[in-house]
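Table S2 (text version). Query chain:
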Amino acid sequence: MAGPLPLHEGISILEPLLGTWTGEGSGEYPTIPTFRFSETVTFGHVGKPFLAYHQATRELDETGEPGRPLHAESGYWRTPELGLAEIVLAHPTGITEVLEGFAAPNSAGETDTLIIDVRSSVIGRTTSAKEVQRTERTFEVTGDTLRYTMRMAAVGQPFQHHLAATLHRA
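Corresponding structure-token output:
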């Protein structure tokens, strides 16, 4: 029986993402009430030059217990050349995102942090999906902690903060 496949060298900068991450976050937007959520994110690979990605969130109630499902998305993360990052995502709500930007390590004292900062270059949607004009996401991975923020312009609202979360390697 063969062992696990080695990570493709073309995406070695993304290696700190591999595995399953769990944690909590919060969201806000002018068209919805502020909310808290629990989240699970998984990054895996099959030896090709991309990571497979799956994310799912659940609403947190007043006691911090997970409740109803809120959101999910799946896709692929790539680094087509040194320093560049591409993320392709599909949402069950009929929206697709193509995000492009950079991925780079940043040394902060004794700890390295991987920073990924991407902006939508294309947003597709079905005729029944809500209108989303623009998205941006920033990820920071330091050791076993992944933090992210997400900003967007959607449903007639100006570009602004939407989500923030802190996840830990499971």
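Notes on Table S2: The chain has one domain: 41-169. The domain at 41-169 is CATH 2.40.128.20 (Lipocalin).
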